[in-house]
Design brief:
The complex is a heterodimer of chains A (287) and B (229). Chain A is of the alpha+beta class and 287 residues long. Chain A contains twelve helices and 14 strands. In chain B, helix 3 packs antiparallel against helix 4. In chain B, strand 5 and strand 6 form a beta hairpin. The chains are: A alpha+beta (287), B alpha+beta (229).
Chain lengths: 287, 229
Amino acid sequence: MIPAKFDYVRPSSLDDAVSALGSGGEDAKVIAGGQSLLPLLRLRFSYPSVLVDVGGLDALRGVRDLGDALEIGALTTHYELTRDPLIAAHCGLLAQAAGTIADPAVRHRGTIGGALAHADPAGDLPAVVTALDATLVATGPGGERTFPPADFFTDYLTTSLASGEILTAIRVPKLDGWGYRYEKFHVTAQAWAIVGVAALARRSNGHVAEARVGLTNMGSVPVRAHAVEAAASGAEASAAALSAAAARADEGTSPPSDLRGAADYRRHLARVLTGRALAAAAGGYAR
Amino acid sequence: MAIELDNTFTVPVPPEQAWDVLLDVERIAPCMPGASVTSVDGDQIEGQVKVKLGPLSLTYKGTAKFTGKDQENHTISIEATGKETRGAGTASANVQATLTPAEGASTLVAIHTSLNVTGRPAQFGRSLLPEVSGKLIAQFASNLEALISAGNSTAEASDTPESTGTAEGSSGEAVPVAVKPAAPVIKQEEHLNAFKFVVVPVLKRVIPVAAVGAAIAIVVRKLTGKKKS
């Protein structure tokens, strides 16, 4: 199927983009790489009246070092995330996870801003930024607003972005020295995760001093596995302790049942994958 | 692919009173978010439901029919079928509502919905159907709860409030509906007697829309068994 009719504008400045969105009304949509939006248009699940192409806004590209954090422009592609030296040095989880997204064609067009604004809980980046405690920065008619992930992802495919607001950057605190691992499980290559686990661990003296775990596709929004984090923090970096922590991965989640897996299968997957991700993030088990 | 959904709520009125409300199509129709009724013919209602969830926008047109009214056991059965108006797709639902007496002259209302989709599901990372239908039913149950609790008054269109709007209960009280921008709010016509009401069939529509994805999936299936879209 081809998309339904829509208008198209390509503003040359952020201000023009914001006003184009505003005058487009409720049915105006931002398009960047289009990797999430175009399938919706083609299947006619979505009927935007106008597409505001932000691809020309160079201000939204690039990764900047803010000292204790990195600021990643919303137009940064998944491919660029995997190759950027600042990201590799200070939040490698983002690079590793971005490398698991779909296929190279999608990674070269898809952007981090688009993936987050699309807010598919089955996408990889929402869970990753949730685990990273990143700050999402948006610009709208009222100026700039920032959101922590829990406030940004409000529901399936729904964010707190007001109509007329554009996600412009993602600020990620530097987690130098932390171990990390994004475990993504799917039975077909390049498919969405049936379940995915983003784990970070700060190690010290054979123990996990602090842990963060974000889950992909275990609810309508990406979720933090708080029970696991509590159990793992301070725990010995041993198989027994981390498995015990991982066993709590599905607490507080409401995984979907669909063609790819029933809810209880997803719960099982969450526990197993969290165990693997934690083990990897903890740098292997202490002797 | 059938999906089972369960919603329960309690209302502070005895079963007989809740029963009367449930059978009053014109009063409960507005409880379905985004519903508009085109005609009511005895036990059969024709209408459409518009659903908006994030970027998704779907309009379903169909029929809902009372297939069973057991006054003694306070059970109602409704059968609904629908078709998405702008894409391809069909869906059907069986809804069973059961009233049981609860403590203090109140009633426990249990709604069990069985959704059935024909055609292939959309090849998304997460099935749209459970999400969208789950929300619609939950919102419907929530609105119904408010309606029954508010007592017998003229039904006013009480749609799910949008983030900037206000909700009105059937007796003028504020409807205790969660006002979330994320709720699948639909533009419902604010008619005093808006009583068009399609249960859930709409949602089913979504699945078949993926006829395109299905064609691709068929090819892929021949090769590998499954593919993402």
